Task: structure prediction
Amino acid sequence: MYRGQLVSSKKKMSIPSDWTFRSEDVASAFDGHVREQLPWYDFATGAIAHIARHYIPEGGTVIDIGASTGNIGRALGATLDQRRARFIPLDNSSEMAGAYAGPGNLHVVDARSFDYAAERPDLIIAFLVMMFVPVADRCELIDRLKGAIRPGGAVVIFDKMHARAGHVGSVIYRLTLAAKYEAGASPEEVIQKELSLAGVQRPMSDAELSGFEPVFRFGDFAGFLFERPA
Result:
């Protein structure tokens, strides 16, 4: 367990027919739900915390896009304190903001409209966010993130990627299903969640992540790192 992790809520979520984070029910049960649906969630969070330690300087600035209940901020808590770094969490859902339990003051704002360059960040983290940004706006947003970070800084993106083709794609998909089932998600919940995401979640393509290096992979979910030259 990484330092700062919040114990998952046991409350079961009523999955909306059209997935949304603008729901008090989703916000209140999110921590438990996400760990059932994404069993590698805590491991990936720990990986981000490890990566982040390499890019947060003394007195630096970190921006967390899609902060939800504060998972990333809690994982970075010790590093932020030790290095007196500033943490800026963002989320576009006021309901999720009400459940936020992490460092910094959460800004309720659309990721596409925030002025990243004005904050002169050393590190920007987008954990499971881009798949909910309209495809037409993604490349422009990612370019803005890459241009906003200070020299020597980094952008970290963990997200769902397009499914692999052929038999390999089937193997990876079944691996994901098995992991969800073993984590306690019922088959009915898995199906409900997949159907609710139709038209809301759009996986990313490798082409959208030009200049990024792969740092993590589980099934169709992967993590990437862009480092701006000093």
User: Anything to note?
Assistant: The chain is about 35% helix and 15% strand. The domain at 24-162+197-227 is CATH 3.40.50.150 (Rossmann fold).
